[in-house]
Amino acid sequence: MIYITVGRVPDDYGAELRKRSLTLPQSRAETLKKRKNDTEYAVSVFSSAALYDFAEKYTGKPRDLAVTDNAKNGKPFFRDIPSLHFSLSHSFPYYATSFSDSETGADIECLRGIDPKLALRMFTENENRYFDGRAERFFEIWTKKEAYSKYTGNGIAEGFRSFDVLSRPISDHLFFCKFGDAFLSVYSERKIADEIIEIKFVN
How far, in Å, CA of 161 to CA of 139, rounded? Predict the structure, then answer.
């Protein structure tokens, strides 16, 4: 089963940001303070709070769980509950988390201007035919690629043209949805047809 949490940072987020930051383990809070600007810091705090909310609710473990990086692929995981897999993503003001008992990857992006030349460099021929210069299709493909690369742990270094997210077997493992001006993709180790997906929208 995949649990997905999607949220939006409120326009006037100051007071809520301070409250959410106090719910995080000190080590995580200190790490987030290194974010490069205020909006990135804010959306990182909100997404991290959602991560710990879920972990506490579904495992009964305390909120001071340590998040560390896997030495093999750099993917973060809960050191005390490695069987709970998760992925975080944010694109201000939206954020998303995916949780599963198997490997997962998630990406969320806001609709904005695009550079068609980027698609030529990063998309396969098949993906470029589907893209056809349309912004919404660009972000559908992009979030799917990001979700898959987060699942593998290889990131953009994997070479986005080296795999096609619109073709099997990869496409069988991808969940995609659009809400408002945001696009969300989640990759599951199991085929999506075999998964139960629960989505929760939070403020």
Answer: 15
78: confidence class by pLDDT, cuts 50, 70, 90 = confident
Phi, psi (rounded to 5 degrees) for 186: -135, 130
Element (H, E) at 25: none
C-alpha 17/C-alpha 42 separation (Å) is: 6
> For the chain, where are the alpha helices, taking DSSP H only?
14-22, 26-32, 38-59, 116-122, 125-131, 135-152
Does residue 25 have a cis bond before it (omega within 30 degrees)? no
Greatest Cα pair distance, the chain, in angstroms, is 48
Res 58: pLDDT: 80
DSSP letters for 133-189:
T-HHHHHHHHHHHHHHHHHHT-GGGG-GGG--TTSTTGGGGEEEEEETTEEEEEEES
Burial label, 178 (beta-carbon count in 10 A; 0-12, 13-18, 19+): middle
Distance CA 18, CA 113 (A): 32
Q: Find residue 87's DSSP bridge partners.
A: 98
* Averaged confidence pLDDT in the chain: 92
Tokens read off for 78: 């809960």
CA torsion through residues 191, 110, 6, 27, sign: positive
Domains parsed from the chain with CATH numbers: 2-202 (3.90.470.20)
Q: Cα separation of 135 and 149, whole Å?
A: 21
